[in-house]
Specification:
- By secondary structure, this protein is mainly α.
- The chain is built from 23 helices and two strands.
- The two termini are 17 Å apart.
Length: 424
């Protein structure tokens, strides 16, 4: 065997295998890192940017202010990726009303009552002192105790009324899709983790597949080179191998959706791990996204929080009127009509101050998280294979052409590098 042929049989497969691995490794890395854009200013790029095709403008390698660099595809499109996560998973699993019912409003009410009961005296004292400190100071202790007992007795009914109103009209108080999108957009690392959790083994397979496919294709390239001994065979072969290795890798992950005896791997690798993926995905959603704390924050601080406050004012006004009972007119005369009208608003402020304490109980929060995890697992288990496949595919589908081009460019580079070192 000629020495030159032996050299090619050793070096070309090694080059194609190693470059195939590096191509897919760096391609996967490009999906998720870095979290933030890193780059340098390029003269003239800012002026050129508006004239570039839209498909080029959205590549996370350039910015409208004239910088050239890179940001991970998933974090660069955080809002869109978050929207995809909602549309392809949460929206198919259940509505926000379903999630709230799973959290069990009765247990939330009971927990809130237990927390609030010890605060009743302080809350009543602050409200009355704020409106009529002299009157409250002059009231006999027995009367104050009667007020405290009345509020404590009415507390469970008042809290239950609040949780019932939320359950009845939760879509009025929370835009679930916007809540999740805003949360994930502000936590791009978590968004990365969601997609990585789902596709961890598949992404690792794709990295290794670059070598598994690239190495034997090197021998094919050696044969072609001997049939066509031209310098351009290696760069062009590198382009083809680099493109195909990424295309096949992604295809093997997602297709076919249903088992087929006509393909060696039978079914998309992602679908084969359905049970394992669902468990990890459900845990991430339950622990970080659809949590009691996030729902509470959305209720009290979200875009529709004014509706929550109006509901609280209405419920607490009814509670104040009920607590005053037959003495309502006397109470009005004593504290003043305007002060009486302000009492529900003061009570609402106190309730809002107490609500975050619901989340401080780690055991209660863990129990609620477990309910969500079980619910998501059950509902995702009945997703169709097509819907399930889209959970991860939708994150990379629009930009997978970038991975193909990336593979082709590195393959071409490998061809030229081999030429530079070993010649034709």
């Amino acid at each position: 065997m000629p020495d030159h042929l032996l050299e090619q049989l050793i070096t070309i497969p090694l080059f194609t295998g190693i470059i195939g691995y590096i191509t897919n490794w760096s391609g996967v890395l490009m999906l998720f890192a870095p979290i933030n854009f890193h780059g340098i200013k390029v003269p003239g790029l800012k002026l050129l940017f508006p004239f570039l095709p839209r498909r080029v403008q959205v590549i996370p390698a350039i910015t409208s202010d004239g910088r050239f660099g890179w940001q991970g595809i998933v974090p660069s499109r955080a809002e869109k990726m978050a929207s995809i996560a909602v549309d392809k998973s949460l929206a198919k699993v259940g509505s926000i009303a379903d999630f709230y019912r799973v959290l069990d409003p009765d247990s939330i009410a009971e927990h809130l009552v237990n927390i609030s009961r010890s605060e009743v005296r302080g809350v009543v004292t602050r409200i009355m002192t704020a409106e009529n400190p002299q009157l409250w100071h002059n009231l006999p202790t027995s009367v104050k105790e009667a007020v405290f007992r009345k509020v404590e007795d009415d507390l469970p009914a008042s809290v239950r009324m609040i949780t019932d109103r939320i359950e009845e009209d939760i879509d009025e108080f929370i835009d679930a899709k916007l809540m999740v999108i805003r949360y994930l957009s502000s936590h791009p690392k978590l968004l990365n983790d969601i997609f990585r959790t789902m596709g961890n083994k598949e992404l690792r397979f794709m990295q290794n597949f670059g070598f598994y496919f690239g190495f034997p294709m090197g021998f094919v390239l050696v044969g072609i080179l001997h049939l066509v001994p031209q310098w351009w065979v290696l760069p062009v072969g590198g382009v083809i191998i680099g493109y195909i290795v990424n295309y096949l890798g992604i295809t093997m992950i997602f297709e076919p959706i249903t088992p087929s005896r006509w393909v060696p791997w039978r079914q998309g690798l992602f679908l084969k791990r359905r049970t394992e993926i669902i468990a990890g995905y459900a845990k991430t959603l339950a622990d970080h996204v659809v949590t009691l704390e996030n729902i509470g924050t959305e209720l009290l601080e979200g875009p529709r929080s004014d509706r929550t406050r109006r509901m609280l004012d209405q419920v607490l006004r009814e509670s104040v009127d009920d607590a005053a009972g037959w003495a309502k007119s006397v109470v009005k005369m004593t504290v003043g009509s305007q002060s009486y009208k302000r009492l529900p608003g003061l009570a609402t402020t106190e309730v809002l101050d107490l609500y975050p304490r619901v989340f401080e109980d780690a055991e209660f929060a863990e129990n609620q998280s477990e309910k969500i995890r079980v619910f998501v697992t059950e509902r995702m288990s009945i997703l169709s294979p097509e819907d399930f496949s889209e959970l991860l595919r939708s994150a990379v589908k629009q930009d997978e052409w970038l991975l193909f081009v990336h593979g082709a460019v590195l393959g071409s580079f490998a061809g030229f590098l081999h030429l530079a070192i070993f010649g034709v």
